[in-house]
Design goal:
The complex is a heterodimer of chains A (about 375) and B (about 450).
Chain A lengths: L1 H8 L5 H4 L10 H40 L1 E4 L3 E5 L3 H7 L2 H32 L6 H13 L2 H11 L6 H8 L11 H29 L3 H9 L4 H12 L1 H16 L3 H6 L17 H11 L3 H53 L5 H10 L1
Antiparallel strand pairs in A: 1-2
Helix pairs in contact in A: 3-15, 4-15, 5-9, 5-12, 5-14, 6-9, 7-9, 9-12, 11-15, 12-15, 14-15
Chain B lengths: L1 H24 L15 E8 L5 H10 L3 E8 L2 H14 L6 E5 L3 H6 L21 H6 L10 E13 H6 L6 H7 L7 H15 L2 E3 L2 H10 L18 H15 L15 H4 L3 E7 L2 H11 L8 E4 L8 E8 L7 H11 L2 H11 L2 E2 L2 H10 L11 H8 L12 H17 L5 H15 L3
Parallel strand pairs in B: 1-2, 1-3, 5-6
Antiparallel strand pairs in B: 3-8, 4-6, 4-7, 4-8, 4-9
Helix pairs in contact in B: 9-10, 9-17, 10-18, 14-15, 15-16, 17-18
The chains are: A mainly alpha (about 375), B alpha/beta (about 450).
Chain lengths: ~375, ~450
């Protein structure tokens, strides 16, 4: 009722402002409560996330940084302040760089095939196939198995003397591969575990995004003569871009933090060195060795921070790259459309529009 | 408008963070034990592997109605190490009674003040119960005693009698002991017989160099550290000589270059890949498990001989300690003391096989001489009792396990796989030592 009045006076401004200034004290308790409710409630509703994040995310992060600045032994605890000494030590340690190499090698061997295969599986599941739910559930099944169990099973399969994989290779006349001693072979074996577990999961996420693409886009593209491959690259991929970026970034974070698989792949390495000569010691495994076996907590904290920075860096690069790729697609599309339009206009000006153009389009498809 | 919303969000995050800081500051929770109503005391116990305590807990509860025991057993010593270290580092969470393994006792000794001096609870009256070196191991440099000894790991030699027969070597365990030199068995003789075996069969003599090396180092008066705690690897002639024997052995094909704790899924124990294996008491259970996993049984032919090259050696063994964080130190010490009494040690041996560290229990096992059918009827308890004679306590430094696993592990593997000769592998170990261990 006040609003009608105020609107006549000053229709452009919000009603509260234009009311005669009676001051805050004139508001009743209920009014103040409701005002507080409107202003504060949203923060209250999102606070559980931030509180939890603060406790399990932010605090450990900051505390790790504090630890990394001290000479800190696992059992004896805090020692002298050494500034960036631990970081210098770690950066000058050949085993750290070895672990970075291993991590990247395993990461590339797992993430790239994983996302490509996941895209293909998602595209296939997106078609009209029979027993949809069955296929979708099957794809997710490996994800349900605990990573430790996966590691143990694959560790046995990749056994050097009588593992399943070497036996199968033997059938086709390939010499046994040193899965646990050869650097590249061990990386492939570990990447296989990761791929087996995560491909289906990523496929389902991508599938969910694909399902949200309006079907009429495909229909009209088909009518325009675009084939299945063309529709996949020109409609599907650009449409699921945000999801694809999400999948790539989570795969990056997961891939760079890989631990259980290399830890369990070699039963002997009580010291957590990942293969007798550190062939597959990833950075997190190196961190574990440093913290819990060599008991140098300060350097371990420094490794943790370097890894964190690395993941943030790689995540940014990934984000930019995947955005570029996707927008390059759109740019190319726009270019092509413009070109077509130009040709079309040219032809129109030459009086060639009509049946001929239609025939040409079909021919292209 | 947007600006102010953003600052408010930032303020909210900052607020959340400070609450988080507060929350973590208050999280120094009490340890898991507590007194219930009616004066009941709950004691928590953390053990690992197969210590054979389960029935004993029940017995103790029956005899002491005011005690309730909550036991937690961790699968391996390595994981128990991580568990105990993490909790020590965090300053909370340790049980009232914690089992500590000899291999990482050196690190624990660095923080021995975190554990109760058991002399306050009368461990000195029981000093004569144990073999003297066991008690000595649990004593820190200040003379505080922080652990009740449970089991020890005297080493004998496991051998495959079928493999010995195939090489024309004697198969009877007394004759095998004699063949290797009996009381005066040396490593030289061990490698010599190994070469005979290799010449006759073309097969390996031992599974991999790591375990043999471990035995060699453990039986020295001083291992990786001198008795007063100085690192003692570089320029250590005794170690270098033994390393050379292993290099020579690997070159002569005596090592099967096996992956320890895997042994090709146990199959290597069954198919005659190697003929001998160093066996501390607790390893007998491991060997049995491996043979069974590899599809073998008692007929596979493994036996246990009362001989060990280079003299008496010990590998492993544990202690029960009471951390100072315990709220019921007296009751915890009483329980730990009871669990390590001769009678209880005998009972645990019968159930799970850890070899007793008390003299009385050892004498009992020796006199019983019970035959172990799985090892061709060898009186394992009796043999182990004999193998325990003459073992000396060796000082274990803080980085003993790092040196064993991460310094010599890679070097010995390189030897086994023929990727390095003796001097190159030794140099590799020395380099690793410089990089991994602060000197």
């Amino acid at each position: 009722m006040t609003s009608t009045l105020s609107r006549t006076e000053a229709p452009a401004t919000p009603p509260e402002e234009t009311r005669p200034r009676r001051g805050r004290s004139d508001l009743t308790f209920r009014q103040r409560l409701s005002r507080f409710d409107v202003k504060a409630s949203p923060y209250l509703y999102i606070s559980p996330f931030f509180l939890t994040f603060g406790v399990v995310g932010l605090f450990p992060l900051v505390y790790t940084l504090v630890v990394s600045l001290y000479d800190w032994q696992l059992l004896q605890g805090q020692g002298e302040f050494v500034g960036l000494g631990n970081f210098v030590e770690v950066l000058g340690d050949r085993f750290f760089w070895n672990s970075i190499f291993n991590t990247f090698s395993i990461f590339l061997l797992s993430s790239i095939p994983q996302i490509i295969v996941a895209l293909v599986i998602a595209a296939v599941l997106d078609q009209n196939i029979k027993a949809k739910t069955f296929w979708r559930m099957s794809v997710l099944l490996p994800y349900v198995v605990a990573p430790v169990a996966v590691a143990l099973i694959f560790s046995s399969m990749f056994g050097e003397e009588s593992g399943l994989v070497n036996n199968l290779l033997g059938l086709v006349g390939i010499d046994p591969i040193q899965w646990k001693h050869d650097t590249l072979a061990s990386h492939i074996a570990i990447a296989t575990m990761v791929n087996w577990r995560w491909t289906g999961y990523n496929a389902l996420i991508l599938l969910a995004a694909m399902q949200a693409i309006p079907r009429d886009l495909y229909e009209s593209a088909a009518l325009d003569g675009a084939g299945a491959v063309r529709r996949f690259f020109s409609i599907t991929i650009p449409s699921i871009r945000p999801t694809l970026i999400f999948v790539i970034i989570t795969a990056t974070i997961g891939g760079l933090q890989i631990f259980a698989e290399p830890k369990l792949f070699d039963v002997t390495s009580a010291g957590g060195i990942g293969g007798y000569d550190r062939q597959f010691q990833t950075t997190v495994l190196y961190l574990w060795e440093m913290a819990f076996f060599r008991q140098n907590f300060g350097e371990a904290a420094a490794i943790a921070w370097l890894l964190f920075l690395l993941i943030v860096g790689i995540g940014m690069i990934n984000f930019l790259l995947s955005r570029r790729i996707a927008s390059a697609e759109t740019r190319a599309l726009k270019k092509r459309t413009a070109k077509r339009l130009g040709e079309h206009q040219d032809r129109a000006s030459q009086g060639l529009v009509g049946e001929g153009a239609g025939v040409e389009d079909r021919g292209n498809a | 408008m947007t600006y102010s919303r953003r600052t408010r969000a930032a303020a909210a995050i900052a607020g959340a963070a400070s609450i988080a800081l507060l929350a973590s500051g208050c999280s120094a929770a009490a340890s898991g034990s507590g007194s219930g109503e009616d004066g009941q005391i709950e004691l928590t116990v953390t053990t690992f592997g197969t210590m054979g305590f389960d029935d004993l807990y029940k017995q103790y509860e029956d005899e002491n109605p005011n005690i309730k025991i909550t036991a937690n057993n961790i699968d391996t010593g390595g994981n128990a190490r991580t568990d105990a270290f993490t909790k020590l580092a965090a300053g909370s969470g340790l049980s009232d009674v914690v089992a500590i393994e000899e291999g990482w006792l050196g690190s624990i000794m660095e923080v021995s003040d975190q554990f109760v001096d058991l002399r306050d609870f009368g461990i000195e009256d029981r000093k004569g119960d144990w073999v003297d070196w066991k008690y000595e191991q649990a004593t820190d440099p200040d003379g505080r005693v922080i652990g009740y000894g449970t089991d020890i790991g005297p080493e004998g030699l496991c051998y495959n009698s079928a493999a010995f027969a195939a090489a024309g070597l004697p198969t009877d365990r007394a004759q095998v002991a004699e063949l290797l030199g009996g009381e005066d068995a040396t490593w030289e003789r061990y490698f010599e017989v190994g070469k005979q075996y290799h010449d006759a069969t073309g097969k390996a003599w031992y599974d991999h160099s790591g375990f043999v090396w471990n035995a060699m180092v453990n039986q020295l008066d001083e291992g990786y550290y001198t008795a007063d705690g100085e690192l003692n690897v570089e320029g250590n002639a005794e170690l270098e000589e033994r390393f050379g024997w292993l290099a020579d052995g690997a070159e002569s094909g005596l090592s099967a270059a096996q992956t320890a704790w895997d042994w090709n899924g146990g199959k290597s124990f069954v198919d005659g890949t190697f003929a001998t294996f160093v066996c501390p008491g607790w390893m007998l259970g491991v060997v049995k498990g491996q043979i069974e996993a590899g599809g073998g049984d008692a007929a596979t032919g493994w036996d246990f001989a009362d001989v060990f090259p280079g003299g008496a050696a010990n590998w492993g063994g544990s202690f029960l300690s009471v951390p100072t964080s315990s709220k019921h130190q007296e009751e915890a010490a009483a329980l730990a003391s009871w669990l390590t009494e001769p009678e209880q040690q005998s009972a645990a041996f019968a159930v799970a096989g850890p070899f007793p560290s008390t003299l009385e229990a050892q004498e009992q096992l020796a006199s019983e001489g019970t035959a172990d059918e799985f090892f061709n009827g060898a009186p394992t308890g009796q043999i182990l009792a004999a193998r325990a004679e003459g073992v000396k306590a060796q000082f274990k430094g803080p980085d003993d396990s790092v040196i064993q696993e991460n310094v010599f592990g890679p070097a010995l593997q390189a030897l086994d796989r023929g990727e390095a000769d003796g001097s190159a592998a030794w140099q590799q170990a020395i380099d690793l030592l410089g990089e991994l261990v602060e000197q």
